[in-house]
Each structure stands twice: as structure tokens, then as C-alpha cells.
Amino acid sequence: TSLWGHCKSSFATAPRIVTFIQSIANELVRFCKGCVDDEGIDLLQSEPEDVTRVLTQVLNVCGKFKSSYFEAKARLARSGGGGSPWKFQNQLLFSRLDACLERVHDLLDIVEGSIVFNKALNVRVGGSDSVGLCEGIDKTVDDFKDAMRALQGVFPESSGAAQYLLDTDDNGLFEYGYHEVFRPRVQQLEARLAQIAGHAWDSAGVSLSELGRVADSFEPLAERPVGRIEWGTRQPTFLSLIHISEPTRLLSISYAVFCLKKKKKA
Fold first, then answer.
1. How far is CA 198 from CA 106, 183, 206, in A?
2. I need a labelling partner for 46 at 20 to 30 A (CA). Which of 16, 89, 99, 144 fits?
3. Full-prediction pTM beyond 0.90?
């Protein structure tokens, strides 16, 4: 707003201010790539929690820049001073920044999938079908690892670097690897894992301690669309069992809150 209202009139023109804001947005994208690489994070192979942390920082920084722009635009419109209102198309200003943010969301989806299957790897359920369920879990996790290797195989060596994966000018390589190779396969695997989780739940019978253990083991799956559907069909059954013996009451109440939170999100 200072530039628009107080600088020389030769600069306070739409084309010049658009170029100026675009340059800031583009520099911000480069800055975020450099920060991720400085962290030494491989976006496809580092610990999911570390990748989530740095990508969330990227979202926060870029989101703050965009919100600052819209706040300044609103202030200028309210004040009515310093020239005509900003009537630039957002796509014109933020095309590269928005493409980067979309890429970050796709990468976070990959990471969230990794968290789901990494936790499932340690699941050991009880019940009458425990052996078959555990074998099914192990096979599903192995298939997810194969999907990750297939995704990594789409890219050149050192493809986990932010400078590469956050580069949206890659001739559609990431779009192909993520949307054509990886995501359809992982959606199938998540559906399979949700079915296994449902069978594990049914095998637990009316044991609140066993039901709570199953729910905790598959909790990351409940954040995924297919998981929310699977758990949603079983919440009423669990909630009907919470009024039982005192030794399990804390677990019951704790998981009841968990169920209600998931139901509210759904």
C-alpha cells in the first residue's frame, strides 16, 4: 500500500505493481525451497514427522504472505486513497506460488499415507482371526512400500530434494508420478487396510480394551476419507459399550471422545 499510495506515480501503475508482487511471490518460493534443502530433508525418504514439519512451515509462510496481501488490498479499498483500488486477478499474481502450495499439499498427502502404513506395520491384533489379519496388514504395508519405490523411480536420483520436488516447471513429471502411478494405488491399499481394520474391530468382540487397542493402532487411517467411512459405521457400537466396569472406564471415555471427534469431522 505504501508503494501504491506514496511512491512516484510512474511506479504506481497496475503492470508495475503486478510485476513487483509477482517477484516477491517467486522469491518466496525460492526461499522456501532453500530452507527445506538447508534442513537436509529428503521429501520422499526422511522421517514423515520431519517432512510434515518443514512442509507445514512452507504453507504457513506462503499463506501469511497471501493473507497480508489481501489485508493490504482491503485497507486500500476502505481508505479510498492513494490511487485506484487494486483490481488485479489473483491468478495473475500468485500463479507460481499457488502451484507450489498445491505441490506441497500433494507431498503432505504422500507423507500422511506413509504415517498410516508405518503405524500399521506395528499393529498386532488379537481375536480369532489374528493370524490372517496380521498377514494381511504385513502384505498391505509391503505393497505400499512398492508404491513408494515406484513413485521414487519416476524421478531422477536425489529426487527427494526440495529444489526438485517443489519445482512446478518439471514438464508434468510429478503430476504423472503422483496422480497416475502413486495415488490410485495407495487409495486401493487404504481401502484394503480399512477393511482389515474393520475385521479386526469385529474380531475384538465387546472387549473395550481390545477395541481401544485396535482404534489406537489404526488412528492415522481414521484421518483419511476411506478410514472415516469405515470407523463411522462402528462408532455407535463402541459408544453403546462405554458404560461398563470401572477398570476400563478411563479407556472407554478416552476413546469415546476420539470417536465423537472423528464423527464431528466427518
1. 27, 22, 14
2. 99
3. no
